[in-house]
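To assess whether the prediction recovers the assembly geometry, we first specified each molecular entity separately, as shown.
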Amino acid sequence: MAKTLFDKIWDNHVVNTVEGGTAVLYIDRHFIHEVTSPQAFDGLASRNIPVFRTAQTIATADHNVPTENQHLPISEPLSKFQVDKLIENCDKYGVSLYGLGHPYQGIVHVIGPELGITQPGMTIVCGDSHTSTHGAFGCIAFGIGTSQVEQVLASQCLLQLKPKQMRINVEGTLHQGVTAKDVILYIISKLTTSGGTGYFVEYAGSTIRNLSMEGRMTICNMSIEMGAKGGLIAPDEKTFDYVNGKKYAPKDAAFDQAVSYWKTLPTDEDASFDVEFTFQASDIMPMVTYGTNPGMGMGVRQSIPQPLDFANRNSFDKSLAYMGLHAGESLLGKEIQHVFIGSCTNSRMEDLRLVADYVKGKQKAPHVKAMIVPGSKQVEAQVISEGLDLIFKEAGFDFREPGCSACLGMNEDKIPANEYCVSTSNRNFEGRQGPGARTILTSPLMAAAAAINGKIIDVSLD
Amino acid sequence: MEKFTLLQSTAVPLPIEDIDTDQIIPARFLKATTREGFGDNLFRDWRYHPDGSQKADFILNNPIYKGAILVAGRNFGCGSSREHAAWAIADYGFKAVVSSFFADIFKGNALNNGLLPVTVSDGFLNKIFEAIENDSNAGLEINLESQSISISNSSEVEYFEMDPYKKICLLNGYDDIDFLLSQKAIISTFEENNRYPFNPIN
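The predicted structure of the complete assembly is given in tokenized form:
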């Protein structure tokens, strides 16, 4: 029977099946971090059981770490306690930790791929909803809750019902100034913040195939923002080339053997999906969000739609009131106060090279505070080796140390109430970047342009 | 996990759509390392002003509405995977959440904590909102065995879907982890039969 990429990986990982078709699904890689793991380790302790497969468990500290002076002890006591707890748990249970000060430390979804821990055909989980990022390599990767973190630590398995499957095709050539981030914001604006719920999404089509691995990661990263359990992309030569030579990638004959297996994974020609959508790249403009969920997005030259278009007018009005915006308004020329370039969506080398290329020789607007937070210590080191940090500093940007930072404002990097932040992160929820903060999601290029101009402009016309 | 069989209670209405887990429990309250106490900060920024005083117009601050059932607009619990959202709702005292649509990860987290997510039709959800609006003492009855939810003092009843495995867990108070630990021998055999050369790390 014809199978999808998802079917093939799923079927290879079903250990057993229980009541109602629920599968005992084997997990190849389990990433953990300081915020969603302490209660899981406590659960193991109360049962007096070990971590079942330490070699497949990888930890880092990213969510609440400071992005300045990481060589000093963490000054915020609760954050310090949580990070210390992670160190203690990893030590006690024998889990590898890439913590603060380690040359591999970084945002969990940045370090997995760059270390070659993420490989095609795998099942990957983490107590973080953006685990879908790893799907860019042709993996079943999804976020889990802390009870499930405990289950995977204890058994390397999860109880899962097989989700429905959706394919999203994007075809054609992207316009100048339109990037992977705009593609995924466009898709979510069409399918809404709940349009993918209950589904695992395969992204396909010529536009997706032509994206780099980092662009594909940006796409898969935001699958959860339309409610999807995860998103994946068929592995191809680009995928193999990216994985080849990475620290934990298979070497020599084992790599060749792996590639021959990975080549069997793409969806069979006559496989079917529960639902399928096709979009044209030529319809996609640089995107901005105007509301308080990632589905509330539009092309930068469009105007905020009228509430009549929405079933629940109260929710729509509440959202625009929070943002200080009105239906019918355009965001072109909107003055902004902050720019945040970072997060597991957009903090990799390509993103930062694109930003450096744009801001080189320019100056940020005087009233804008602009922060660039690299995704990992390896990205930070590469930025410095290419001299991009100097370009950022000369343009007036604050180049920080790696972490999740202002994407969720768990550390000191918060946006003040009622101020606008153009952000390359993934969520524009109320208070996400700090109580009262107003987030406008864009691509790194649009964010860089907003910092330089002090207002939102259309980079495709720049 | 606590057993769930039958729940009869008044309900708290929150007719807002797409309520994300950042609203249920903001990230700055995720620094605790235990599962307890999150109820104090449930819906923190909707419930309190920055100075800590209550926002009078938020439903949890209205003494007319109380009970063990939260009724919310569609797509409840979207966004972050933080289980702290389910812990906060349960810690506050809710035993069930009723909506016409739940985000996947939240639904799973709720079920793992004995907090029952009940998915009803948009039409039935509106009937519940209307019933509570007309009379804040209107009760709901949720019967897990028969998978039914009814509005008391009316003939309104609807049946809801439920994963059969999770139903057994809730009715008996079983945790997934107990079952998974019982599978360890099968899991080890699976590993032996699926040794790819590229699987282990470090």
